[in-house]
Write a structure and sequence with these properties.
The chain has about 190 residues and is mainly α. The protein has helices spanning about 5-10, 15-25, 30-50, 55-70, 80-100, 105-115, 120-135, 135-150, 155-160, 165-190. Helix 2 packs across helix 3.
Length: about 190
């Protein structure tokens, strides 16, 4: 299952809420539309936590099955992606508990997946690849939630159950690491 394209259009809260509402009436087309609109963010977040393509795909599959069966539990509040990412997070944590370790994926495997994914922009591919390579687990989750899924820092703080100041600090530290990487990369190109 490859994630969908164009995160800006896809994660429009009103459209995602409409999908969830239609799914309450067993509308399979609404599930397809929900997948199209949210899969890139869900997959990016799951991959940032699990660091394993197959596990991230498993979580993504489980998420949509769970959302389909539990859509009646969602109460429309204008934040459907927070609900979806919270479920994704819980599924990722459950998978990590199953393995009782952090899954490490050989770098060449996730680089191949990222580079071959036609549904991600070049910028998203670069950010995701460098996040997986350079950042700590916490930093990676925050950057992916903010840059790929489009969450605000305050929303990320609630999702990760951390103080806003901690989220901002980790995000800024992660950006500095990525900026340093970009500067070093540019220097290498000039040499």
């Amino acid at each position: 299952m490859a994630p969908s394209d164009n995160r800006k259009e896809n994660c429009d809260a009103g459209q995602v809420e409409q999908c969830l509402s239609a799914m309450r009436n067993q509308d399979l087309k609404a599930l397809e539309e929900l997948y199209r609109r949210t899969s890139a963010s869900v997959f990016g977040y799951a991959l940032s936590v699990l660091k394993n393509v197959q596990d991230a795909e498993d979580v993504m599959h489980d998420l949509y099955v769970l959302v389909w069966s539990a859509v009646w539990k969602y109460s429309p509040d204008g934040k459907p992606m927070a609900w979806i990412i919270t479920i994704t997070r819980n599924l990722c944590l459950q998978k990590l508990r199953e393995y009782q370790k952090r899954s490490d994926i050989p770098e060449e495997d996730w680089e191949t997946y990222i580079s071959g994914n036609q549904n991600m922009s070049a910028e998203d591919k670069l950010i995701l690849a460098e996040c997986l390579r350079t950042l700590s687990d916490e930093e990676r989750q925050i950057v992916v939630l903010h840059a790929v899924a489009g969450f605000k820092h305050r929303e990320i703080a609630r999702l990760l159950e951390a103080p806003l100041s901690t989220i901002l600090s980790r995000y800024n530290r992660a950006l500095k690491k990525l900026q340093k990487w970009m500067e070093e990369s540019n220097e290498d190109k000039r040499s």
